[in-house]
Amino acid sequence: MAQRDMDTWRRWISENLLLGNPPEAISAAMAADGEVTEEEAKREVASALESPYVQGGSRVANRLRKREWTMTVYGRLSRMRPNGSTIERRERLSRDEFYEQYYYQNRPVIITGMLKDWPAMTRWDFDYLRERCGDREVEVQFGRESDPDFEINAPAHKEMMLFRDYVDLVEKAAADGTGTNDFYMTANNASRNREALDILWEDIHPISEYLDGDSVDKGFFWMGPPGTKTPYHHDLTNNFMAQVMGRKLVKMVPLHDTAYVYNHVHCYSEVDGSAPDHERFPNMQKAQLLECTIGPGDVLFIPIGWWHYVEGLDSATVTMSYTNFLKFNNFVDNYTTYQHL
């Protein structure tokens, strides 16, 4: 066998040994693949077991397993808490309640009543958006449905167009009832769109109970037809999702269940949130899953590290998201695992 092919097998062997898989099962899987003989497979696995590199890696893997065990303790304790399996709805939480009970404790919550004074709640519709910003050029993601890794490859899907034309596309999809994930304006487009849509910020007010008082132009504008999807991922900050138009389904998995969500690169999971394949990803069934639907006027707090999948439901959706909380939220500086895991 070519050296390059055997090196691929050797990396696979070492990874599976460090994951704790039995040596005999590893060699059997290699032989069953047909590329190597049973003897070659056994010899390579035995060699790996004797390698000081693998032995050193095993010590590190053992430390990581200890940390994973610690996280499972948090998970079990969380499930014991009353309402631990639901995302609570709270009307106009006070600042102290929000930070003490949810932000500091890394717990999600839906806050209601905070957007009542937003003119956007009554003004924003297709005609109004076209009238106010129709001639502005905006950035949108297209071709998402043809790429299974559309979110990871988001920069490759960016296109420029008039906001009027984009609103037309969204309105048509909503009227036809044809859900699509093929085009979506997301936070990944914010650097271009924040200035292009600046006149819309007159219609939203700072959520100053929780965010810094100069937050109007610090939000991220999301707009899409029914059927938009954001795959399972976690953010590197705490986040607010303030829903203005339409409804979204949100599926969430706590930070402490990260070991079960098949994180394969950066902050993304391999699991399809719309139809999880439990045969391919059996550990996902061990993860605690919390679901909610948010609609106009709802503000969903997504704690840092919580895995979430988001899907636009039965109409066009517009969402504002925020990260500029009054308390520390700069967890990005010491994050280094952007590569494949």
Automatic annotation (TrEMBL):
Sequence ranges assigned to domain JmjC in this UniProt record: 189-341
InterPro entries documented for this protein: Cupin_8, JmjC_dom
Record-linked Pfam families: Cupin_8
Domain of life of the source: Bacteria
SMART domains assigned: JmjC
PANTHER family per UniProt: HYPOXIA-INDUCIBLE FACTOR 1 ALPHA INHIBITOR-RELATED (PTHR12461), HYPOXIA-INDUCIBLE FACTOR 1-ALPHA INHIBITOR (PTHR12461:SF105)
Name this protein carries in UniProt: Cupin-like domain-containing protein
Originating organism: Actinomadura barringtoniae
